[in-house]
Write a structure and sequence with these properties.
It contains no helices and 2 strands. The chain is largely without helices or strands and 81 residues long. The chain has 2 domains: 32 residues, no CATH class; 47 residues, no CATH class. It has a two-stranded antiparallel ribbon. The chain is flat, with a radius of gyration of 19 Å. It starts with 35 loop residues before the first strand and ends in a 10-residue tail after the last strand. The relative contact order is 0.15. InterPro entries: Cyt_P450_CS, Cyt_P450_sf.
Length: 81
């Protein structure tokens, strides 16, 4: 609900913790550490990533990047009881 910030005194330049995605400090999302791990596909190094861009309104990457997502904890801990 971004409209909750209309006519508020919140600093939109990153100095106010209410605008951080997962919060910060004691206000941090309790599930943050249970999140996901991101890595490159097997055998790929960061040096192999092409950072070439296509000129345009949004300047996307010329070649799509790939990433592998893995849970941080064992799979059985994410299952519903």
């Amino acid at each position: 609900m971004p409209e909750r910030f209309i006519s508020s005194k919140i600093d939109v330049k990153g100095q106010d913790y209410k605008l951080l995605l997962f919060g910060s400090g004691w206000r941090m999302c309790p599930g943050y550490s249970l999140g996901l791990k991101w890595r490159l596909p097997d055998g790929m190094t960061s040096e192999q990533l092409s950072m070439e861009e296509i000129f345009g309104l949004s300047t996307p990457c010329k070649f799509p990047h790939e990433a592998v997502v893995e849970p941080k904890l064992p799979a059985h801990l994410y299952a519903a009881a």
